[in-house]
């Protein structure tokens, strides 16, 4: 499994992640944000700037904990 970033429902649409992403991999869809996995380099800039900690790195290990 390839690791990827996921934005959960705690998102407050502050736009910080979208503005800081060096790859422009975060798209706004109405009031939700979507991470384009093919553009994202997992630099974690968005994770660090998120004020509500709603962006999570999903790996094989974290997926096992969730499910």
From TrEMBL:
<keyword id="KW-0408">Iron</keyword>
<dbReference type="InterPro" id="IPR017900">
    <property type="entry name" value="4Fe4S_Fe_S_CS"/>
</dbReference>
<keyword id="KW-0479">Metal-binding</keyword>
<keyword id="KW-0411">Iron-sulfur</keyword>
<dbReference type="Pfam" id="PF14697">
    <property type="entry name" value="Fer4_21"/>
</dbReference>
<protein>
    <submittedName>
        <fullName>Ferredoxin</fullName>
    </submittedName>
</protein>
<feature type="domain" description="4Fe-4S ferredoxin-type">
    <location>
        <begin position="3"/>
        <end position="30"/>
    </location>
</feature>
<feature type="domain" description="4Fe-4S ferredoxin-type">
    <location>
        <begin position="31"/>
        <end position="60"/>
    </location>
</feature>
<dbReference type="GO" id="GO:0046872">
    <property type="term" value="F:metal ion binding"/>
</dbReference>
<dbReference type="InterPro" id="IPR017896">
    <property type="entry name" value="4Fe4S_Fe-S-bd"/>
</dbReference>
<dbReference type="GO" id="GO:0051536">
    <property type="term" value="F:iron-sulfur cluster binding"/>
</dbReference>
């Amino acid at each position: 499994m390839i690791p990827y970033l996921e934005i959960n429902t705690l998102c407050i649409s502050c736009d910080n992640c979208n503005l800081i992403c060096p790859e422009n991999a975060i798209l706004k869809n109405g009031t939700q944000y979507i991470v384009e996995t093919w553009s994202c380099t997992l630099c974690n800039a968005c994770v660090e700037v998120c004020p509500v900690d709603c962006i999570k790195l999903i790996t094989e290990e974290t997926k096992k904990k969730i499910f």
